[in-house]
Known about the structure:
18% strand, 15 helices, Trp_synth_b_CS, aromatic amino acid biosynthesis, 17 strands, lyase, globular, alpha/beta
Amino acid sequence: MSLMAEPDPTGRFGRFGGRYLPEALMPAARAVEGAFREAWSDPAFTTAFHHLLTTYAGRPTPVTECARLSEALGVRVLLKREDLAHTGSHKINNVLGQALLARRMGKRKLIAETGAGQHGVASATAAALLGLSCTVYMGQTDVRRQELNVFRMELLGAEVVPVASATGTGTLKEATNAALRAWVSETEDAHYCIGSVMGPHPYPWMVREFQRVIGDEARAQCADLLPAAVPDVVVACVGGGSNAAGTFAGFVDTPARLIGVEAAGGSAVDKGVPGVLHGFTSHFLQEESQVLEAHSISAGLDYPGVGPEHVHLAESGRAHYPSVTDEQALRALKLVTRLEGILPALESAHALAWVVDAAATGELPAGSTVLVTLSGRGDKDVQQIREGLR
């Protein structure tokens, strides 16, 4: 059985995951699980989902050979181009699946949380497509640094609710708190559309399955492109971890090394300790049982925890989770942009930074083949990039 199979009956991957919710939300979470199980085994649902991925989201996304970057680093670099999907990131894959599920369940509204804004944009997009209303909760700090995405959501018809916190930093953690509170009062009419492989069961599993298309496509594309059929190393950035989980699902049963790159200021796999937050147990940055604030130049990596399956993959030894700093990410972003004419999102720049540094130190032997999932494009981050490079 694949390591990335269905979680156990309690929704756990090894020691992590589960469903820790107030009693008022338990029926809603169980209803989502039941509806997903039924839909995911229904050919009519999966056909409709893949039809939208093809005709609306623009799949399959290509694998791009980076000739100039490869020459500079001494390793062969391939990019899985999720930045070319509709709305500019991998987020559209999961949201189209959840929006179809919400409609199947008779819901008329999507509730979403967002950090960098890409999940919010994808949620607003799917809601507009399928005739649903949409409310997106976003930390006040992220609202300021992602003004472009806020406007995109509003243009698509979504309500964006800024979330402040007297004790927090106004980022993804606070947005998730607010979205969960809203779901309590709107379970009859609304579906909570979680953007990553976190939250109560079945979300970590369900989101991974909707994102599995990344890894399945990349596996087939690499089989056509590479003499060995699979790359030596597969790399993706990790905040909550959905693009990495989707990518790893396609390669977990191959000899490829799996590398999930976290932000140094939010490296929950390495620096976190077991705890419970937002309905699931995983590793979280904590001190004396108090959840700490994460930091990253990338709003999408500014979360104090990580999806439970990633901690399970780390504990099993199947995947490894190094971290890189803001400065390393900015240097890699500039290098890739100058050499390949591709402006990656700051999230993706963390994955690229690990490749750049690992090639320089020899952790990636010369001649290795590396596949990097480019989870999104950097248009949304231009202001932060400009300020960071100054």
